[in-house]
Design brief:
Largest sheet: 5 strands, antiparallel
Number of strands: 5
Strand content: 35-45%
Helix content: under 10%
Radius of gyration: 22 Å
Length: 111
Amino acid sequence: MRHVRVEWIDATSSHNAGWKTASEIIGSLTPSRSTFTGWVLHEDEVYIIFAAHRIGEGDDEAFDGDLCLPKGCIVSMKDVTDGLSGRDRPANPARKRGKLGAKKRSRTRVG
């Protein structure tokens, strides 16, 4: 299963209720650029379905944080290349390497 980072252009709204002139609307709106990292669950000619979270294995595997994007909105999609699958990556790499929670060592001169 592919683990990817995807960027897409998304629709935007002004969120300001009330009447406005066309120039007020045009001058205040641009599409937003969004980013998502997750696993590709399905892909066809029209859209891709992703999930941000994955748990379990085999028949017990489940997903959360799903997102369906039309391919026409996608700007870029790149494989996550950290060398580890999401299942194998430590929750906090610094702790795994012993850089967090370690006691400070005092340096004492002998002499």
